[in-house]
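A common beginner's mistake is to predict each chain separately and then try to dock the pieces by hand. The better habit, illustrated here, is to supply every component at once so that their relative placement is modeled jointly.
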Amino acid sequence: MQYSSVSMERAISELSRLPGIGRKTAQRLVFYLLKCRTSEVERLTDSLVAIKERIKFCSICFNLTEEQSCQICTSEKRDRSTICVVEEANDVLALERTGEYRGLYHVLGGALSPLEGVGPDDLSVKELLSRLNGSTVEVIIATNPNTEGEATALYLEKLIKPLDVQITRIARGLPVGGDLEYADEITLTRALEGRTAI
Amino acid sequence: MQYSSVSMERAISELSRLPGIGRKTAQRLVFYLLKCRTSEVERLTDSLVAIKERIKFCSICFNLTEEQSCQICTSEKRDRSTICVVEEANDVLALERTGEYRGLYHVLGGALSPLEGVGPDDLSVKELLSRLNGSTVEVIIATNPNTEGEATALYLEKLIKPLDVQITRIARGLPVGGDLEYADEITLTRALEGRTAI
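With all components supplied together, the output reads:
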């Protein structure tokens, strides 16, 4: 059923475009916002407009930043000999949460996907290669462990191999807390292939 | 982990206030919005600001509307002898979806809840009573079947009884498609109490 009010219907359909938000959730959000004070709604909308105005890509690694270069690229504490290549800026966030990685990043902006028309020119591949000057010792390829991510990893491997830089790929295997019984065949195969000496 | 960018952190925390949206979902939404065109984000935020500016309460039934009175109250096609009393405006929406009800509504704006400090004066009870003039034959009390809703129903029943209007309460019982085995005791009790002749 369409709601009778035009502005309400518009807000619901705009909210439903967001990923993971269906019509019902959108409706619930609209009713919630109607109960909020106007100032609260404005604070929300202002914050959304602000990210579009302020946030841009880091000129070096294409991570998101409010400055010319991101905090990781400009940090004195990071290890400049390692570059971890990821698909999206939120992958940087995920890796930073581990607190284990101290090197630099390079955000590709996606993965190769002929079906969706994403070719090497749509990704920041050229920029990655130009960063691989003398100081880079290792490139960790941390694209997603799916078809597109693996294809991208293979493609990058071919390009980087001649450059005399060590290339590594993050391990694929059983997730911690996982269960052998319920693991799919490909994951198990990768876990066997990637076994390490103990 | 806090994201390094101030505006991003602000947008994430503003989005996380919304019901049903946690920090992770908020993060995903922010990354999505960053990929959208600015015009799309503005269309979203404009639509949210618009509902706050345009939508007000119907002067008769307290449903949400952009006009002085809502489409249901002003419609010629509705049966003016029946008033269905609900807690919130989204309950009207739910009942309208059935397409079964042709009468009017009255939105209380909540349910009695001494614990949360909601008393009769916080609800549109007085306005409901003043609507019960000669033309009203039946008042259907459709507050939620929980403690607060039942208490509100009882309270309204006491107030309306002297007014020579038929009072009914929506049926409580097993949901269609439900399973006796998994129904809780109170629902089963209500289903037994509310049994109808076949």
